[in-house]
Task: inverse folding
């Protein structure tokens, strides 16, 4: 089983021709609300895309915004452990999605900032704890240390990007980052290969958007080319990757296969609007994995990352 501790937000999404530049007003088109937040997205991805039994610790206000978040988790089969904050509203995110499927996101954390170390229940029976960085960093560190002490594997998606304290990095078994987050954690602006050399975490997985992903596991390099899709909205693609990857690891699969499942889940999420609404089913992920990725793509990915041929 997987335990996720993290954020839950109600997303307010506007589609527009492009993302506004500083000082620019853009006339948008369709407006919708979607359940979101990195923690909740990843919990649903573990359960729905990964097919793994999943629990989640989250904080919600005593307001109408909390209701669709709880309903979405329950619909995916996630068991929620809710910290209620009557005096603090549920977290929200304001998202602009452009016609080329890119997005810009501003988060008002709200109740997410109320999660404390004392809120984590005992982790008996869980194999993996999945964390992100939209909740207080000291709480994330305390959760990871508690998991390590209980023999639970710690998977950290270091997003949003920030410098991580050594006490947190020392507990991480699997670090998942995108290219920008890798540079922040490694404190280096060189190639992916150079940044990986600066991290002592046993396993680091780097997502690279339309190129695919790579990983370093105890010195061994693994490559996974992207599954080709036509993107509609990239929101929650990374979260879908993290959830499906962690679920595969929790089910005893190899890291190479887990990267395939994560890549397929992330690709499928790009083909649908919204955050949790875009997360695919396990059957859909399995079907895409069986189709495989383009021949020769690994060589291009290796060169991009700066690994020796």
Result:
């Amino acid at each position: 089983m997987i335990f996720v501790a993290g954020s839950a937000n109600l997303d307010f999404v506007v589609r527009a021709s492009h993302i506004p530049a500083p000082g620019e007003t853009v006339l948008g088109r369709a407006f919708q609300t979607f359940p979101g937040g990195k923690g909740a997205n990843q919990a649903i991805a573990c359960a729905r895309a990964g097919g793994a039994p999943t629990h989640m610790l989250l904080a919600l206000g005593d307001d109408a915004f909390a209701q669709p978040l709880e309903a979405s988790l329950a619909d995916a089969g996630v068991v929620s452990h809710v910290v209620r904050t009557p005096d603090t509203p549920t977290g929200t995110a304001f998202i602009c999605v452009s016609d080329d499927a890119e997005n810009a996101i501003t988060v008002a954390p709200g109740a997410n900032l109320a999660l404390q170390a004392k809120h984590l229940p005992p982790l008996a029976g869980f194999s993996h704890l999945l964390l992100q960085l939209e909740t207080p960093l000291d709480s994330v560190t305390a959760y990871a240390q508690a998991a390590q002490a209980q023999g639970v594997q710690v998977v950290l998606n270091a997003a949003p990007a920030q410098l991580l304290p050594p006490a947190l990095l020392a507990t991480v078994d699997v670090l998942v980052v995108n290219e920008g987050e890798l540079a922040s954690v490694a404190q280096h602006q060189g190639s992916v290969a150079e940044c990986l050399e600066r991290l002592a975490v046993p396993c680091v997985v780097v997502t690279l958007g339309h190129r695919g992903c790579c990983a370093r596991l105890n010195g061994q390099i693994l490559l996974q080319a992207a599954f080709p899709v036509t993107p509609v909205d990239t929101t929650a693609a990374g979260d879908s990757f993290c959830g499906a990857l962690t679920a595969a690891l929790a089910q005893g699969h190899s890291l190479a296969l887990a990267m395939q499942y994560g890549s397929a889940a992330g690709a499928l999420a790009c083909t649908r609007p919204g955050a949790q609404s875009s997360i695919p089913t396990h059957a859909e992920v399995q079907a895409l994995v069986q189709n495989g990725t383009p021949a020769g793509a690994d060589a291009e990915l290796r060169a991009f990352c700066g690994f020796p041929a």
